[in-house]
Design brief:
- The protein is of the alpha/beta class and 773 residues long.
- Among the domains are: 287 residues, no CATH class; 78 residues, Helicase, Ruva Protein, domain 3 (Orthogonal Bundle); 85 residues, no CATH class.
- Helix content is 56%, strand content 8%.
- It is built from 34 helices and ten strands.
C-alpha cells in the first residue's frame, strides 16, 4: 500500500489535533458482504469515530435515524423518486449483512452522527447534463463487483469464501505504522483491500480518471463529504464505501483535488425528490433478479452473518433438513450429522479452512437430497436465496395512498410476502369479500399484488383464487398512483374513470364495468352502466357487441353475490343480443378463414355467457340469429358447422336434423375443403360427440372413405388440426370404434329395398350407360 493511503487510514493523534491531522479511516467494503460487515463492526468498535460517513444519497440523512427503530426489520431499501415523475426512482437496498447497515445501526445506537456522502438524488435522478448520455450501466469499464474479480483471480468462485480465507483468517500482522503487533486486526482487511483495488484501478484506468462521468461526480461528492466533516470539527472520521472508491478518496484533503471537485460539481441539473424506506426481499436482493450490486445467495450470507461461529455449518444443515421435511422428504438427524462431517472433509480436500456454499450444496445433494434436482431447488429457493421480506416502521414517511394501503392490509389480515402463495377466498364471508375488493382495486390501480388464478372455485361465483406475491417495485407503483387519491378506493375509482374515458371499444368498457363490480366501487357503477348503454345503442360492429357479452353476463351474475344491484344491465344485454341477432349474417358473410375462427370463438363465448344467466329469452333470441347461419350462402363452412353445433347443444335442432345437415355438408355436391371446414366448426375441438353418437361418426367415416386421393390430400391438414385438438382418450375411443366396425351406416333407423323398384331403376341406368340387359 502506498504511503499516502497508509497516512489517510492511520494518521493523526487525538481529537485535539488540528483539522489537517484529523484521522480518517477508509473502510472499503463489498456491498452486502457478511465478511465486510463483520470487519466494519470491528473497525467501529476499535476506532470509536465521532462521525460515520457512508456511501449513499445525501438525502438519506433525513431518514437514517429510522434504522434503529424497533419496527425496522431488514432487508429494506431507501426509495428515492422525483416528485413530479415518480417513475424516475432509485432503490438502495440493505440487508442485515450489509456493511452500510451495520454502520447505520452502530452509529444510531450510540448517537454518533452519520452522514451519507454519495451524489444527491436531486442530481442523480435529474436529466443528464448537456452533451452527456446517462447510459453507463453497461459501458462502465470497472468490474461490477471488484472484490469478486479478485476472488476469481485467486481461484475462488465465492467472493465471501475468498474474504474469509484470505482476509479474516490471515491472523495478525505487523502494523504499517510502528512495526508493533496490532492489538486488533480490524484495520488489516481494509488496508489489504485498498492495496489490491489500487492495483486493479491502475490497470483499468491508466489515466487515473474514471471513464464514466457519473462516477467522476460520485467520487467528487464523496471527497467533498469527507472534507466537509473535517471542516466542521470532526476529528475521528470513519468512511464506509465500496472498495472500488477507496483509491479515489485517499487524497480527499489535497487542495488541488478540492478545486477540481468543485469544478466538476458546478452547475449540475437538479430536480425535486423525496426519499423513504420500503420493505425489500432476499429474492430481489439476489443478483439473478437484476439488481446490479446484488449477491447470488443472500439467504446463505444472512446465515453466515447471523450465526458466525463454530456451529454455522451444523445450523445450516439443520435448516436444510427442516425445509426438506416440510416438503415430505425423509431426513433424519443422522443425515444431518453425516452432512456436517462430509462438508468439513470436502473443504479440507479442497484446501479451504471452512466449507463454503459449493461444499454445503454438494453435500446436501449427495446426503440429504438423494442426488435429485427437485430438493435442491427447494433448498435454493427457501435457504440459499431466502424468502425474507423486510418491514418498516409506521413512522416512516409515506404518501397518503401508501399509508392507507398499509391500514387496509392490516384490516384484511393480508401481509405482503416475497414468496408466491395461493389465496382462496369465499366471498360469502365478509373478511374474504373485503380482501377480494382490495385486490381488485389494486388491480385497477396497476398494482398487481394478486393475480386471479384457476382454482377450485372458478366455475362458481362464491369463490376466487389469487396468486399472491409482493414485489418491491409495487411501492413505486403506489407512489405513481398517489396523485389519484389519498385512499385505495378513491384512487381506484379515479383510475377507473380515466380508463373508461379512454376506452375505445365496447368490450373494454364492459370489462371495466365488471372490474368495477368486483372491486366494490358502487358509486362508480351507475355512471358506467349509462356509458355502456349509450355505447351499445350506437355500436354497429357485431364483433364488438359479441365481445361485450361475457363481461356483461358475469357482471349480472356477480351482482347477486356481492349485494350490488345490476338489474339495469339486463336491458343493455337485451339490446346487445337483439343487435347481434339482426346483424350476424351480414357480419359473417365473405370473411376469411382467420376472421371466421375469431367470430366462432366469440360466438362460443357468447353462448356460454348467456347460458350463465339462465334467461330463456336471451338464449332464444341469440339462437334465432345463429340459426340463420346454418344454411346461409357465402358463409364460411366453419361458421355453418359451429352454428349447427350451437343449435344442437341448445336443443334447437334434433339429432335427425343434425345428421341431415352434416350429410349435406359432406355430400359430393360440396367441395371437400368446405366440408372439412364444416366438420372443424361442428366438432369445436372436442371428439366427445363422435364417441357418443356413432351415426355421426359413420357419416364422417363414409365421407372420408369416398374422397379421391387429391381431395384427401387437400383436406388432410385441416382434418389433422381438427382431430389433433381432441383429447387422447377421445381419439383412442374413436379409433377403437372404427377398428372394430362398430360405426354404423350414416342413417338412423332401418331401411329395406323394394326389389321391383330397384329392377326398374337398373333398367334405366343400363339404358343410360348403353348396357343391354
Amino acid at each position: 500500500m502506498n504511503a499516502t493511503a497508509v497516512e489517510e487510514l492511520t494518521s493523526g493523534a487525538d481529537a485535539s489535533v488540528p483539522a489537517a491531522e484529523a484521522r480518517v479511516w477508509l473502510c472499503g467494503i463489498r456491498h452486502h458482504g457478511p465478511g465486510s460487515a463483520r470487519a466494519v463492526r470491528a473497525a467501529l468498535d476499535l476506532h470509536q469515530p465521532d462521525i460515520v460517513l457512508v456511501e449513499g444519497p445525501a438525502e438519506a440523512d433525513a431518514i437514517a435515524a429510522l434504522a434503529v427503530d424497533p419496527e425496522m426489520q431488514p432487508p429494506v431499501a431507501m426509495l428515492g423518486h422525483v416528485l413530479d415523475h415518480p417513475e424516475r426512482a432509485s432503490f438502495s437496498p440493505f440487508a442485515s449483512f450489509s456493511p452500510e447497515w451495520i454502520a447505520l445501526t452502530w452509529a444510531g445506537a450510540r448517537d454518533v452522527p452519520i452522514r451519507f456522502i454519495d451524489q444527491p438524488l436531486k442530481h442523480a435522478l435529474a436529466p443528464a447534463p448537456p452533451g452527456e448520455q446517462r447510459a453507463f450501466a453497461g459501458a462502465r469499464s470497472r468490474p461490477a463487483d471488484p472484490l469478486a474479480e479478485l476472488a476469481h483471480a485467486a481461484g475462488y468462485d465465492d467472493p465471501e469464501r475468498w474474504w474469509e480465507d484470505v482476509i479474516e483468517h490471515r491472523g495478525h500482522r505487523e502494523s504499517p505504522v510502528d512495526g508493533a503487533a496490532a492489538p486488533d486486526a480490524a484495520l488489516d482487511p481494509f488496508a489489504a483491500i485498498a492495496d489490491a483495488i489500487t492495483a486493479v484501478r491502475a490497470t483499468v484506468e491508466p489515466t487515473g480518471v474514471p471513464a464514466d462521468p457519473e462516477e467522476v461526480r460520485r467520487e467528487a461528492w464523496m471527497r467533498t463529504g469527507i472534507r466537509t466533516a473535517i471542516a466542521e470539527g470532526f476529528r475521528r472520521v470513519l468512511v464506509v464505501c465500496g472498495a472500488w472508491h477507496v483509491p479515489a478518496l485517499v487524497g480527499a484533503r489535497d487542495p488541488r483535488v478540492a478545486r477540481s471537485d468543485k469544478a466538476v460539481l458546478r452547475g449540475l441539473p437538479r430536480v425535486k425528490v423525496a426519499i423513504t424506506w420500503v420493505p425489500w426481499t432476499h429474492r430481489r436482493l439476489a443478483s439473478a433478479m437484476g439488481y446490479g450490486a446484488g449477491v447470488t445467495a443472500p439467504g446463505w450470507y444472512h446465515h453466515l452473518f447471523a450465526h458466525a461461529g463454530p456451529d454455522v455449518i451444523p445450523r445450516w444443515f439443520t435448516n436444510v433438513a427442516r425445509v426438506l421435511r416440510d416438503a415430505d422428504y425423509a431426513t433424519s438427524a443422522a443425515d444431518v450429522v453425516e452432512a456436517v462431517r462430509l462438508a468439513d472433509a470436502l473443504a479440507a480436500l479442497r484446501g479451504r479452512p471452512l466449507p463454503g456454499l459449493d461444499e454445503v450444496d454438494d453435500v446436501a445433494r449427495a446426503v440429504l437430497g438423494g442426488g435429485q434436482d427437485t430438493p435442491m431447488r427447494l433448498i435454493s429457493r427457501d435457504l440459499v436465496v431466502g424468502t425474507q421480506i423486510g418491514a418498516v416502521p409506521a413512522s416512516t414517511p409515506m404518501v397518503p395512498l401508501a399509508r392507507d394501503l398499509a391500514l387496509q392490509q392490516k384490516r384484511c389480515r393480508l401481509k405482503p410476502a416475497a414468496m408466491a402463495a395461493t389465496l382462496e377466498l369465499d366471498l360469502r364471508r365478509p373478511l374474504d369479500l373485503h380482501r377480494s375488493q382490495l385486490l381488485h382495486r389494486l388491480t385497477l390501480l396497476g398494482v398487481p399484488w394478486g393475480v386471479p388464478a384457476e382454482g377450485r372455485g372458478t366455475t362458481g361465483t362464491f369463490r376466487e383464487t389469487w396468486q399472491m406475491r409482493w414485489e418491491p417495485e409495487l411501492d413505486v407503483r403506489i407512489i405513481e398512483r398517489a396523485a389519484l387519491g389519498t385512499t385505495v378506493d378513491v384512487a381506484a375509482a379515479a383510475s377507473l374513470a380515466q380508463q373508461a374515458a379512454g376506452s375505445e371499444t365496447l368490450g373494454e368498457l364492459t370489462s371495466l364495468l365488471e372490474a368495477c363490480l368486483l372491486a366494490g366501487l358502487d358509486d362508480s357503477l351507475h355512471g358506467l352502466v349509462e356509458l355502456v348503454a349509450d355505447r351499445s345503442a350506437v355500436a354497429d360492429d357485431v364483433a364488438r357487441l359479441l365481445e361485450s357479452l361475457p363481461s356483461l353476463a358475469r357482471t349480472i351474475r356477480y351482482g347477486d353475490v356481492r349485494g350490488t344491484d345490476a338489474d339495469a344491465l339486463a336491458a343493455v344485454v337485451r339490446s346487445v343480443v337483439a343487435r347481434v341477432s339482426a346483424g350476424l349474417v351480414v357480419a359473417c358473410t365473405g370473411i376469411d378463414d382467420d376472421g371466421a375462427h375469431d367470430m366462432a370463438r366469440q360466438l362460443r363465448e357468447a353462448q356460454s355467457a348467456l347460458s350463465l344467466l339462465a334467461d330463456a329469452e336471451f338464449v332464444a333470441q341469440f339462437h334465432r340469429g345463429v340459426g340463420m347461419l346454418v344454411d346461409g350462402s357465402r358463409l364460411p363452412g366453419h361458421l355453418q358447422g359451429l352454428a349447427t353445433r350451437l343449435l344442437a347443444d341448445g336443443g334447437r335442432m334434433d339429432p335427425t336434423a343434425v345428421e341431415r345437415r352434416l350429410s349435406r355438408a359432406l355430400s359430393r355436391g360440396e367441395e371437400p375443403k368446405v366440408g372439412a371446414a364444416f366438420v372443424e366448426g361442428f366438432l369445436g375441438g372436442s371428439g366427445a360427440l363422435l364417441v357418443h353418437d356413432p351415426v355421426l361418426l359413420g357419416v364422417l367415416d363414409g365421407w372420408l372413405a369416398t374422397l379421391a386421393a387429391d381431395s384427401f390430400a387437400e383436406v388432410l391438414p385441416l382434418l389433422r388440426r381438427t382431430f389433433g385438438g381432441f383429447e387422447l382418450a377421445e381419439r383412442r375411443a374413436i379409433g377403437e370404434r372404427l377398428r372394430t366396425g362398430n360405426a354404423p351406416s350414416a342413417r338412423r333407423g332401418r331401411f329395406e329395398l323394394d326389389p321391383e323398384r330397384v329392377a326398374a331403376a337398373l333398367v334405366t341406368v343400363g339404358q343410360l350407360l348403353g348396357v343391354q340387359r
